[in-house]
Write a structure and sequence with these properties.
It is built from 16 helices and three strands. Helix 2 crosses helix 3, helix 13 packs antiparallel against helix 14 and helix 14 runs antiparallel to helix 15.
């Protein structure tokens, strides 16, 4: 992306420069490296690198961690490892990130400081993990922990997604069949019944009226249906509506309990990674608060405040309903042994297994119910279409 920078340099006065950079911080760094004092930065748009929105969308953060770990374990220095990754990278934007990191390291910056210059690429948890490792000299161990942490999160997410594929496929196929019957087959039957003056049952009349409506105003019905779908999809992209729907789901006992367990599993796994990396518990709690839903975020702030005032972690978490009976006992054991990071990892594993059992049970119950509902809807439509024929056949006999 092109940036226009108003800057000042001794002997030149105020001037306007143009840079192709990843983001505003990268453009400012390029100007400062040439001896300019940046006064203002403005995006020019136009042709250039796009501004990065979300980490992981295009930058291979997990492969980056794994490859950097392998190169460091092979004996390469940090700069050599990053230069190697930059040489092999074919993605233009990712290559520019690697080149920028190498340049910052040559300037004497630490890796965490260099990573922090790209907040849209490297998430705060990753930067914090690297920063903590720099104090102990265990960068390889920190990268290994982050890779294992991210891989486990991806595994849980993929498991939930894969379990949802078949029900979604059933709903899509069933919806297509119902749509075909209502938009094509029913209108054909409505024309037949209109011509012979057959007295139709009330439900069949309602179905045929729908068929006549589709036949007469098909384009209008399609336009309205498309508009409704568009509004629904657009509404689901709005954070306020999503938070409102999530709040309503939390109020449903069975669903809310499962969502609570999933949130706690992610929370304790992330907290475990940060504690193992040497980050103090209060600082780690501040970092992971963004992972929780708003309904739990306020409770975590109160728990963090209580821990700052000297309360044990287990008691603070219990008072704010951020534990279950099992995790509470594990936290108390961790406090006695002084191994909170390992104990929180075990809590996350326990929650993951509990979630897996719930998902499996739900799928086993939901799939046959969904098939029965779809079959019932299709069967009712077919029976209502053929009911006049059945009555006519009975009267002839």
């Amino acid at each position: 992306m092109q940036f226009k920078i108003k800057a000042h340099r001794s002997g030149e006065g105020v001037c306007v420069l143009s840079f192709s950079a990843l983001d505003e911080s990268d453009a400012a760094s390029q100007a400062k490296s040439q001896g300019y004092n940046v006064l203002s930065i403005k995006s020019e748009g136009g042709v250039g690198l796009p501004r990065f929105k979300k980490p992981g969308n295009w930058f291979p953060l997990v492969p980056f961690s794994q490859e950097l770990l392998a190169l460091l374990d092979a004996g390469l220095s940090l700069v050599e490892a990053l230069e190697t990754l930059a040489e092999k990278e074919r993605h233009t934007e990712a290559k520019k990130v690697f080149d920028s990191l190498v340049a910052r390291l040559y300037e004497g910056q630490t890796l965490s400081a260099a990573l922090q210059d790209f907040p849209s690429v490297f998430p705060p948890l990753f930067v914090a993990t690297v920063r903590a490792s720099e104090k102990t000299g265990g960068l390889s161990e920190a990268l290994s922990r982050f890779f294992a942490y991210q891989s486990q999160l991806d595994f849980v997410r993929k498991k939930v997604v894969s379990a949802s594929i078949y029900p979604v496929l059933l709903m899509v196929v069933g919806g297509v069949v119902v749509l075909f019957l209502m938009s094509y087959v029913v209108p054909k039957f409505s024309v037949i019944y209109e011509g012979n003056g057959t007295n139709l049952p009330w439900l069949s009349q309602m179905l045929m009226q729908w068929g006549g409506l589709i036949k007469t105003h098909g384009e209008m019905v399609l336009l309205i249906a498309t508009g409704v779908i568009f509004v629904a999809v657009y509404g689901l992209t709005r954070p306020a509506l999503r938070e409102f729907l999530l709040l309503k789901l939390w109020q449903i006992p069975a669903i809310g309990e499962s969502m609570h367990v999933y949130q706690l599993a992610r929370f304790y796994r992330t907290l475990s990674m940060l504690l193992k990396g040497g980050i103090p518990v209060v600082g780690a709690l501040d970092m992971v608060s963004g992972l929780l839903q708003p309904i739990l975020r306020g409770r975590l702030k109160l728990a963090t405040l209580a821990i700052r005032e000297g309360q044990p972690v287990s008691r603070a978490m219990e008072e704010q309903q951020l534990t279950t009976s099992v995790s509470l006992r594990m936290l108390r054991v961790g406090e006695r042994t002084g191994n909170m990071g390992e104990m929180m990892e075990r809590i996350a594993v326990f929650y993951d297994e509990e979630m897996a059992r719930k998902v499996e049970w739900f799928i086993k119950m939901f799939e046959p119910i969904l098939m029965a509902v779809i079959g019932l809807v299709i069967g009712v439509i077919v029976v209502l279409m053929y009911m006049p024929i059945f009555e006519l056949a009975g009267s002839i006999q």
